[in-house]
Amino acid sequence: MELVKNFLVNTGMLVTLAYLANLLYKYGLSRVSLRLKYILSILLLIFAGWISSSFGFRLRDNLIFDMRFLPLIVASMVYSRPSMIMLIGFGIGLTRFTYSIDEAAFVGWLNLTILGVVCAVLNVWMRSSTASLLVKGVATVLVVNLTNVLNIATFGVLPPRLYLTEIVPVLLPVSIVLSCVIMLLLREFHLEQQRIMQIEHANRLLSQQTSELQQAHHVLEERASQLMLSSQYKSEFLANMSHELRTPLNSIINLAQLMAEQDNERTPGETKLYSSMIYRSGMDLLELVNDVLDLSKVEAGKLEILYEEVNISEIPELLQMHFEMTAIRKGLVFDIELEPSLPAVIISDSQRVQQILRNLLANAFKFTDQGGVTLHICKRIEADADEYMDWMVFEVSDTGIGIAATQHEMIFDAFQQADGSITRRYGGTGLGLSISRDLANLLGGHLRLHSVEGQGSTFSLYLPIH
């Protein structure tokens, strides 16, 4: 009877220790690394075996009967590495030497070491078997208890007959029952842990989905804002286009009407003047239409690039002829500077290069009222993707109104200008820079802008020499 009471106390201490360990795990070790938790769990099971021996039934000073193999049963059900289970059995066996160092202590160490090996084998079987958790638990309890009895009967200090006839009939049933109780408690703990893990997993999924929804919401808001801006810019573009198209059309219509009504009274000088104005208005219309067509071709990916040798010395001459009268009419200085040792030719599309430079120079003259415009042509070597590349650089500088820093990116977008109102002073459709940037990209180069509001701007066209 005393042995049964002692085993009940033994089991109660182990259950209490397991409960305290659970509280410590939840509230004290929640932020500890998994590796440290793993090591602490091994030490806890070894400590549980030592506690079991402390409250064991002492038949004599050197003979202790207890439930120290229960932590091994728990380990066989929990751990996935058989070597760790054998280590726990070996460790619990060593704790027996804290009470005495004699033959009984050695037998206790040997018994737990053998039980550690048995539990490791059972662990391998449980991980490979398809049997239910209940069947695995009952089989483990029976095998460990019977092995424990067999070890003590074989290696124990007590005579085997005395042990098997007087102690085992009382000890074995109680040990099996208490082991099953521990297994049931372990099963409940395991189910609780599974529920907690499922809840945590569900919370993580909900948190992830919430984060994804928030990101999608931000993306939708940003795209909606972009669509609104795009719609606004296109509305402004259409308004600007109607304004820009109406002016030359009105000129053509009115001048043609004047020429028809005053055919007899018209002098040769007037005819020449009217013809010249009609020609300029028609050219303005053609330029607007070409800009729109070029933009649509670039966006559709159908703009053809014809690579050929481009003579660097011809470009300044053509541009000088094109903008010389504009500079004289506005009273501006127009300089073209070429650095020495420039290559004679580069491989590019001559028509598109001149189109980009005409757009840049036209903007420079449009927004400059005093000072001048300079075209500087030079060669530069810059690193690009860990490689050095030779660039032909065309810099168009002016002393005009400049561009605010907040507008540097926006002005390269289609349908946009720094001033979007149709009553602005300088006019234009806002397509020139967008087309120039896209053409520069198609030619393998890029555009750069340096500008200070009120001090002028410098647009740089970078084209690869090779």
Rounded to the nearest angstrom, the radius of gyration is: 46 Å
Strand adjacency order, main sheet: 4-6-7-9-8
For the largest beta-sheet, the strand count, sense and barrel status come to: 5 strands, mixed
Task: Report the total helices.
Answer: 11
As a percent range, the share of helical residues equals 55-70%
Per DSSP E runs of 2 or more residues, the count of β-strands stands at 9
Structural write-up:
The structure is a single chain. The protein has helices spanning 2-27, 34-54, 70-78, 82-95, 103-128, 133-155, 160-261, 268-300, 314-330, 350-366, 432-442; strands at 57-60, 63-65, 308-311, 333-338, 345-348, 372-384, 387-398, 446-452, 456-464. A hairpin with a 3-residue loop joins strand 8 (446-452) and strand 9. It starts with a helix and ends with a strand. The model has no long low-confidence stretch (mean pLDDT 79). Helix 7 (160-261) runs antiparallel to helix 8. The chain is of the alpha+beta class.
What layout of secondary structure does this protein have?
Layout lengths: L1 H26 L6 H21 L2 E4 L2 E3 L4 H9 L3 H14 L7 H26 L4 H23 L4 H102 L6 H33 L7 E4 L2 H17 L2 E6 L6 E4 L1 H17 L5 E13 L2 E12 L33 H11 L3 E7 L3 E9 L2
Parallel strand pairs: 4-6
Antiparallel strand pairs: 1-2, 3-5, 6-7, 7-9, 8-9
Helix pairs in contact: 1-2, 1-7, 2-3, 2-4, 3-4, 3-5, 4-5, 5-6, 6-7, 7-8, 8-11, 9-10, 10-11
